[in-house]
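Entry 14. Structure prediction run on the chain below.
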Amino acid sequence: MKLILLAVGLVMVFEGLVYALAPSFLERMLETLRKLPPDAVRQIGALIVVTGLVLIWGAFQIRP
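Output returned:
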């Protein structure tokens, strides 16, 4: 449970930073996503999920 709260908290911090530091960039990025076909957006989402899973796996492979 502690790890889940940590993960959700980190996601919220990073997403909040985008809104706080670069709101115009976020608007441009969303406009670009609206112009893409749904299949391309799904592929981007799947790539982000796989990348995240690889990073999580890598983090657990590091020995202290």
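The radius of gyration is 15 Å.
Filed with the rest of this week's runs.
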